[in-house]
Design brief:
25% helix; 16 strands
């Protein structure tokens, strides 16, 4: 019996040894075959089959330098730039002197919308490669542009009958802006905006069936600074400050005597402030971020932390989906001893896609957007009307071989105007539209 047990044990050990030897030979042969096949597919520009072969090889734990190079280039040529980046990164780390890999990685970053990663990488390139990709950070201004925004306002004047009525009605609202941005020291971006908002409103006051009105002009001067810095590969930190100086001019008709009246003009200046900071991280098909805005708007302090999530299902910027929930906290009146904190949940969601030469971005924002701060604190809604249920459509295209960016944005949202009737607060909901257009020129 012991002889048989020994015999079976010997056979078991020998069969396992043979299987291991065959597996090693098979693995060795598979690596050679994968190298031969992917090289031929690379020469034939057979990108789809190269990707298929490469994925199958990796599944069987076959991996080597040129497989990474070929997979990265294949994904690049099928325009899945975000999927190309990990392979090209590993290949570049293994051999930074390979200018072909370096060039592909640089462009994959650019076409994925990861400009700071691209510029951070390029600062280490040799002069010949930097010249080849037209990389130059010696410019004083990288890009500059202008923008114009106009509100299309419905007439929401309240019924002036039935008791004393007091209401402010916006008649015109326009924005004029100048933008300038510059990349510096590889992986850093400085952005500056100077803007003017011109707002005209009418203050109505009715008492004893006698209607009076005052024309009020508000001119807001905006000076905005932002800095975006690359901390490490795919991770960037940003901060911004927006200083708002509001000049308020009131023209009041005042009675001097029963036969004569005069026009009195009062002017005073107020100051608002908004700030922003964010930490954002790019992954293969995602971008995630933690952001926070804070501000001093119309004598109220506020803070708004938020989370950002962007998904690129195709591995490029031709299609993406995004959402950003935010939690807004604002005091009701800093001068009131019984002040309360108003809390609101705001969420913005949307998608973007490329249609020929046109990039389309559509979004919807829901929540109480009173004194709302957005776009990295570049846009501040500091009037006294609540905004909600906003729809946006943004169109962007590039002209003159990509040197000029043109964009146009349409917005429609619900606004709520508050007024007094018989000393009691009332409200009117109305629809408001805005049209924004601008150009940005790359020097």
């Amino acid at each position: 019996m012991k002889k048989y047990l020994f015999f079976y044990l010997l056979i078991f050990i020998l069969s396992n040894s043979i299987e291991r030897i065959n597996a090693q030979n098979k693995s060795s042969l598979s690596t050679i075959e994968v190298d031969r096949l992917t090289y031929q597919q690379y020469l034939n520009a057979d990108w789809k089959n190269l990707i298929k072969t490469g994925k199958e090889a990796i599944k069987h734990h076959i991996d080597f330098y040129y497989l990474k190079v070929r997979l990265g280039i294949a994904y690049f040529h099928v325009k899945k730039y975000r999927k190309a980046i990990p392979y090209l990164q590993e290949a570049y780390t293994a051999d930074p002197k390979n200018t072909v890999v370096a060039s592909y990685l640089y462009n994959a970053y650019l076409f994925s919308g990861r400009t700071l990663d691209a510029y951070r990488l390029a600062q280490y390139f040799p002069f010949s490669l930097r010249k080849k990709i037209s990389f130059n950070q010696d410019k004083f201004i990288e890009q500059a542009g202008i923008a114009y925004k106009q509100d299309i306002i419905s007439d929401y004047t309240a019924d002036m009958n039935n008791g004393p009525v007091e209401q402010d009605v916006i008649k015109n609202n326009a924005y004029y802006g100048f933008d300038m941005l510059n990349y510096y020291n590889g992986g850093h971006l400085f952005y500056m905006n100077a803007g003017i908002i011109s707002l005209e409103l009418q203050h109505y006051y009715v008492e004893d069936n006698i209607q009076q009105s005052e024309a009020v002009s508000l001119t807001q001067y905006q000076l905005y600074f932002a800095n975006y810095s690359q901390i490490s590969e795919g991770l960037n930190w940003s901060f911004a400050f927006n200083n708002l100086f509001i000049k308020n001019t009131e023209e009041i008709v005042q009675s001097i005597n029963p036969r004569r009246s005069g026009l009195i003009t009062n002017t005073y200046i107020t100051y608002d402030f908004a700030g922003f900071t964010a930490l954002r991280k790019d992954f293969n098909a995602f971008r995630m971020g933690l952001t926070a805005t804070f501000g001093y708007i119309d004598k109220n302090w506020q803070a708004m932390p938020a989370f950002e999530l962007v998904y690129y299902p195709l591995g490029n910027a031709n299609l993406y989906f995004y959402t950003s929930p935010a939690y807004k906290m604002e005091d009701t009146d800093i001068e009131d001893a019984n002040q309360q904190i108003e809390e609101d949940f705001i969420i913005k969601s949307g998608f973007g896609l490329k249609l020929g030469p046109l990039f389309v971005d559509a979004s919807y924002t829901d929540g109480n957007m009173y004194h709302y701060i957005e776009n990295d604190a570049l846009v501040v809604y500091n009037d006294n009307e609540k905004m909600s249920q906003r729809y946006e459509l943004l169109l962007t295209t590039y002209l003159f071989k990509g040197r000029m960016k043109w964009y146009a944005k349409a917005q429609q949202y619900t606004k709520t105007n508050y007024y007094l009737r018989n000393t009691q607060q009332q409200q009117i909901n109305y629809n408001n539209q805005t049209i924004t257009t601008g150009i940005l020129w790359k020097f």
